[in-house]
Amino acid sequence: MTLEDKLQRAGFLKNEVVVYIAILSLGKASLTQITEKARLNKVNTLDKLNKLAQKGLVTREDIGRESYYTALPPKQTMRKFLHDLDATHKEKESYMLDSLEGLEIHYNSQKDMPEVKFVEGPETVNAIHTEVQNTEFDEMLEFTNLDAVDQAIPPTLRRQHRSALKTRRNKSRCIYTSKKGAILSRKFKQRLRYFIPKEKYDFDGEISTFGDKIVLVAYNPRYLTVIIRNKSIAMTMKAILNLAWETAEKYNKVGLRPFRRARMNSPHSLSHKPSPVNQTADGESLKRKHNDNV
Predict the structure, then answer these.
(1) Tell me, what's the pLDDT at 286?
(2) 10 Å Cβ neighbour count for 212?
(3) 136 vs 176, 209, 215, 283, CA distance in Å?
(4) Edge-to-edge, what's the strand order for the sheet holding 66-71?
(5) Which helix (H) or strand (E) holds 170?
């Protein structure tokens, strides 16, 4: 007798079994992911997820506009399920107990699988805040295009993002590009920033990694974020960004003030030489404006 047969004899509907086994194998997953795994339509899958939640077998977490479902450990939920059965359901109890080993196999199979979340639109900022606040890490590594950030994220959300990062007081290293040049100071509190020239390294997205998480952001043609949780993948990405950091050093020689380099590349520097007073004021203003962008 298969696991599916045992669960049906224990009182589960056929599609409940299909959805339950799918979510046990996936770990935390979205409705779309569970639907594809179970090979059912979304309406049917959602209905069965709600019934499994009522039985105390799965939980739901809302992140932005997306809901994620997680199967609770079978050994934990088994006690509640058996407790809810009355004395007339001894046969169902027997089948449920026989199913436990198979359920544990499906549940344990997802522990080494990467946890992947997709978030779209302005809710992306809040989703990243949540991941940052709920993850233990010493340092964040970032690779970003400041121009794309400015175009995609409203100023209010950018300020919220900066405030959230400040509360953690973690170290961070950021490699960035911008058509305005090297507009960030190289060191600001716990943050180190290296500039790379846009004409040589042109990209529209962003990559960051912290703890066992990787955040991939696409700003064009729409604002879309993928959040991956997997220790091995995160370690690989950190190695790649550390290599990129060493490469970026050649564009960030000690002693060169970033905002002056941006002014040197400006067309205004070809037409006239600004006064020392204005140059300092403009430069400091530019630096203050962008100082906390990353």
Answers:
(1) 45
(2) 18
(3) 24, 12, 15, 36
(4) 29-30, 66-71, 58-63
(5) none
The answer to whether residues 100 and 137 belong to one domain is no
- Residues in the chain predicted with pLDDT less than 70, given as ranges, are 79-113, 122, 160-169, 253-294
| Under 8 Å between Cβ of 174 and 144 | yes
140 lies in the same domain as 243: yes
Last residue of a domain, one of 90, 113, 136: 113
Domain CATH for 177: 3.30.870.10
| Residue 108 shares a structural domain with residue 121 | no
Query: pTM here?
Result: 0.54
Residue where one domain finishes, among candidates 88, 113, 138 = 113
| Cβ within 8 Å of residue 258, ≥6 positions away | 181, 182, 183, 184, 185, 186, 195, 287
Q: How far apart are CA 81 and CA 77, in angstroms?
A: 6
* Distance, CA of 191 to chain centre: 21
94 in the same domain as 55: yes
Q: How many domains does the chain have?
A: 2
Q: How confident is the model at residue 282, as a pLDDT? A: 42
Residue 12: exposure state from Cβ atoms within 10 A (0-12, 13-18, ≥19): buried
pLDDT of residue 20: 87
Pairwise CA distance, residues 205 & 220, whole Å: 8
Query: What is the reported pLDDT for 142?
Result: 94
Q: Which two tokens stand for residue 51?
A: 């019934």
- What are the structure tokens assigned to 190, written together? 């716990």
Give the per-residue pLDDT at 267.
Answer: 37
* Structural domain containing residue 213: 116-290
261 and 182 in contact (C-beta within 8 Å)? Answer: yes
Concatenate the DSSP letters of all residues of 203-266 into one string.
---EEEEETTEEEEEE-SSS-EEEEEE-HHHHHHHHHHHHHHHHHHGGGS-TT--HHHHHHHTS
pLDDT of 35 reads 92
pLDDT reported for residue 258: 44
